[in-house]
Amino acid sequence: MSTGGERTRRVLDEARGVRAMVWIIAIMLFLTVLGAALGLATRNAAATLENQLVGRATVQIVTGDPARRAAEADRVLGALRRLTEVQAATPVDRRELAALLRPWLGEDGADPDLPVPTMIDLELTSSQPATLAKVRAAVAKVAPAARVDAHEAWMAPVADFLDLIVLIAAVLVILLATATAAVVVLAARAGLEAHRHTIEVMHMLGSTDVQIARLFQRRIARDAAIGATIGGLAAIVMLLVISAQAAGLGSELLGQARLGPGGWATLALLPIGFVLLAALAARFAITRTLERVL
């Protein structure tokens, strides 16, 4: 019986070698892993950015006269440090401002005569609108021309853009998984048609549809496993190269776009998920086709 089963498997696999489906699944999984990595890394970056901006604000004192600007800054600092809603109020060093302005102004940004606004970083107890309103009221009493900007407000477009990237990556993963299932279904039906006469003989010898479907399912699952291994390894190598390049850029935002242990674990499970998806799609397609046609 075992010899007959081995012969049957050889008949179903004859003259195929490495099938086109192996490479199709490898390409699909390669793209899926890259898409999933993009979504996971962007989600981590968005979460880190949100945590850093919650409850943060900046006071800008834009008075042109340096002496008056310094006096207003002292009064604003005193008023802010008396508020229970303010955990910390820290003046931004002018050298830091000059470094931020250097890409646009060059070395002129360090000119002491340049009317650069005095800035104060705030860490608030909460991100509630009432807290920010109380801070603005306290600042307006001592420096009416000063502005209070919540970090969440001016970084909201960036956060929305990152959320959009995560959504696109999720849709891409779903579409690629669906396309992979469709490819498996087509390959299974093509295999059934190619071995139609062999299957008819197997039926006459007493083989059931479930037994035949199991044989095809094993073959397709094996091919899917080979393709998933190739595509998964290629994608991981590509991600390691991209990660090394991003780390060398020194960008703070790119540095936050890390996968982390959970992200790498999710990517490692994708090949297994693709093999299971291929096996289930193959079994469904084969059993339905055998019931209707053969």
List keywords for this structure.
single chain, 294 residues, alpha+beta, four-stranded antiparallel beta sheet, 10 helices, 75% helix, rod-shaped, disordered N terminus
Give a written overview of the molecule:
The protein is an alpha+beta fold. Helix content is 75%, strand content 8%. It has helices at residues 2-13, 20-53, 66-81, 94-105, 129-142, 151-194, 196-204, 209-249, 252-256, 260-292, and strands at 56-61, 86-91, 118-124, 147-150. It has a four-stranded antiparallel sheet. The chain is rod-shaped.
Please tell me what the overall shape is. Answer: rod-shaped
Q: Which stretches of 5+ consecutive residues score pLDDT under 50?
A: 1-18
Strand share of the residues? Answer: 5-15%
Structural class: alpha+beta
| N- to C-terminal distance | 23 Å
In short:
The chain has about 290 residues and is of the alpha+beta class. It is about 75% helix and about 10% strand.
What's the arrangement of secondary structure elements?
Elements: H1 2-13, H2 20-53, E1 56-61, H3 66-81, E2 86-91, H4 94-105, E3 118-124, H5 129-142, E4 147-150, H6 151-194, H7 196-204, H8 209-249, H9 252-256, H10 260-292
Antiparallel strand pairs: 1-3, 1-4, 2-3
Helix pairs in contact: 2-6, 2-8, 2-10, 3-5, 6-10, 8-10
